[in-house]
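Posting this for the archive.
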Amino acid sequence: MTTRSSSLRPFASPGAPRARIVLAHDWLVGMRGGERVLDAIARALAGVPGVHVAGLFVMFDDTHSLSRSIDALPHVCSTLGRLPWASTRLRRWLLPLYPAAVADLSRRLARLHARTPIDLVISTSSAAIKGLLPPQGVPHLCYCHSPARYVWSQRENYSRDHSLRGLGLSMFGDRFRRWDARSAASVSEFIANSSHTRDEIRRCYSRESKILFPPVRTEFFTPPAQTRTLDGPWLVASALEPYKRTELAIEAARRANRELLVVGDGSERRRLERLAGPHTRFLGRLGDERLRELFRSASLLIFPQVEDFGIMAVEAQAAGLPVVARRAGGALDTVVDGVTGAFFDGDDPDAIVAAAGRCPKNCDRACRENALRFSEEAFRAGLLSLVGEACPKLLSRPG
């Protein structure tokens, strides 16, 4: 993996910018869904004349290369993030110190603003960075993937974990949740990634929000050139963590005597391997090209979790693959029951088997058309509209 040449370097921009913007993200430790949204934001802003991104503030940064647009920004990492192991999975054990890391970044942001004023802060958050305190008079837009799951919607699942993480949540989870609720006051306006997240923001923070669906790479994920075979394997693809409920897909495949391919890795992998039937294969983490191949060759994707948005379900549909999804969460925005997939209710594997039987066949075109609603261009247009409202300088013409 390539390492960035420097995580703290000057960032030159030709000419005098009309607007200076700071981006903020929880951590940079891999290129997953949240980082793809961050990358899309950075690329959208880079295409606006006169806009200068003055910094990318993060709690943790492993300094590995992620994307050209993210790598090009000046990275500002918290003091906590400089611990030699802080950018590994061990960072989750530092949960009680997340507020201190955000406070540290807030002070550094204030010093940056004192040297050269900034006009807007945009955070992308599913943990703590939405608590970044902007300088007085500077608006803070938060693109919220989810209120911190481990202390809100998925608190019970994570607390049942018998690892040190579960112990830490039982000891410090309530304290962090109180801080998380208070820190919502740092945000001028929330942007939710789905109707489900909008409802969660209202429930957790008593705040309203606007909805902007995340960008999906519909130009990359495309249907197969040949007709899809209906007897292809079932597929499930996600991080193997408690709230993903992958065990439901595994048990459904066992009862239906169907081949199941499991893509992803995580803390639950060993337990899930013990539950798996003879026709289930664990493939680990895969690159995008290989994932696209699986989308094109599988017969359906099982989506058993309550996801805030669930970009994987849309990527699958962009490749023409129907989705069997729990009737909850972001899937209500992204899957059209009976047209691009089928819904099931509850935690019953038999309900998944029944939904798979109802799943539409030969629906590549319908899936593709539905996925195009979530294209990168649609995201860019929506983002710049919201940013322009928050920062009128963006709407002024140079000169």
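Residues 114 and 135 are 9 Å apart (CA to CA). Confidence is low (pLDDT under 50) at residues 5-14.
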